[in-house]
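Quick one: structure for this chain?
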Amino acid sequence: MTVPPDTRIFDPHGPVHAGVGAQINLTVIGGLAKDTRDRSPRDVAEDQLLWLWRRFVHPGGFGEARRLLRATGTVLLDGAPGSGRTSAARVLLYELRRDADTFHELLPNEEKPFLSPALVGNGDRMLLDLSEVEEALWAGVREELPSFTGTVRKKQAHLVVVLPHHRDQRPLEDLWRHRAEIERPREHEVLLRHLTLDDVPRNACSPSLPVLSDFLGSGRPMREIADFAARIVRARKAAPPDKGFAHWCARALADLSGPRTQVAKRLAEAGTGPQRALLLSTAMLHEAHSDVVHHGAESLLRIAGSPKDDRPLLEHEDLARRFEDISAVRDANGRVRFEEFDHDAAVRDHFWDHRPDLRGHLRTWVGHTVGFTDPSFSLEDRDRLVVRLAAQYLRTKRPEELASLAEEWTAPPVTADRLRAAAQVLKHGLNDEEHGRSFRRRVYDWSRSGQVSEGLSHVLVDLCVEVIAVHRPDEAVVRLHHLARHERRTDRACAALLLLTGADHRLLRLMLFRLARDLGRGSHPADPGLFLRIADPLPLTSPGTRPRALFAEAAVREWLATAWTAVFEQCPRQTWEPYVRRWLHTACADERHGDPLLDVLVAGARERGDLLGALYATARSGQRSAPGGRERGALLTDRLLSKISIAQGLSPSPSQSPQPPRGATS
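Got it. Here's what it folds into:
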């Protein structure tokens, strides 16, 4: 008896083989959207939560929120924007962490049901962040919340909801008892916590500085205070040893103030095209090797249409002098940087804001420069270049132009460098606090369209696994499902689905729910094949780190039976037979789940004699290769035949042997 060509990985930490043929590595182009370390999205998310938990300052109301969550399973966090409500929600759930998994977010997404009780697993930890949702969505969620919280309590799960501040203020009725108000923590304490955990000695900090008090007293959101602390740390590293806390803060505040007047002055002094090209190339390729910066400046001149310098080469100024003219220096390794702290960002902002006619040329230039072949031009240099361009689009609120740039760089003919650049562009957009949601929507629209290029499809698969799945694995699964439906020449999206769902019971439950729902509607011809690969009996019947297996849930068995019905009706026997054999072999080896596995297959046949006969014939033909040998296989076949007889209303008396259903040929 053969088994389906399918391998499941339960806790992947590197490339996996999840299908037929050659191994599919999801980061085949040098790691499109991540560094070179192979880490699962769960590991990345857990590290980020640990970072937040260590720096979190408990605000007023946090203790009451903790009490409510542990007593009732649900807490609704209220409070002013910028008070740290979302961070408080994450820390509350992190405190309930277990070895099994991290918490997951329920998201205002594109597909209903939004708050489906069927998708709540035993012991789940869930975050529902409604802080930025529109009034219409809040009204819909508000209607669903009471029944949803009942399911949460029944399944001993935990739910933290961040309420929208600007909402309909009518009482939340029976949900009001779950409400806790989060107050704004002390700003000075937040700043000091961040600084000391970033190795700034507490005795070196003077948070009472008047200029610092002005900044902290301005009611800024907590995320801006955390960002300011990071700028102080950067300023400290760049400052001379004799400078102290006041100097670091002054530099950090200057960094926050945006492009400085010195930039305009320096640009006015750099009166020639070559000088300005070198200035902009240095800013865009900051800390890259001088050879790369020089190449970038020459390339920028050509793309912008500047006339060629026809003087003999020996009459040109040497590079060291040209860098000196723009206040840039080369270190011992030949890498170029500006002497003034954060001057590169100021130059980039100034050119972008005051030379809009250069933006198209700069876009073209970056696309060419990422493909520059030079041993000193590292992947990190290329990634930084692309991110700096992306930052300008996002800073000036042009996310659609940035998305179109990714489409341009993934269109044929593609190169590995441009694919990686497109991935970095979209990764930056997905991680942007202001525009991340619109980029996730754009990825969703692309995944559903079926019209994206093969290069963009590859990039989207990697982004789902490496970026979206870190904090929003449900959205990653939805997008990968749509991408897998439209695959033709590869099965990378399907392999990615196997990767994510094989490592997480909750995501496997979500995918089975989607497949059962859509197969019942006959919505897409690729779904039967996806179901056969995803509904592997081993992860379904293995509890992993959970108290019980996913297959033990009645709703899951019902979805599986519904999906099998569609597969039996839509696919020829030769397609589904190897997968049915795998189910039968698992049933033969697993005493606990053997009968329920057979029950699901029989239920999927829906009393159709021809299908029940084909199931019986499949079992008989596989007896010899069954786990434990032919005798165990024969016993399993008898059990299956008995269930088939009952399904057909032909239950034999104790003295009779069940008869094979009509059409049962091996």
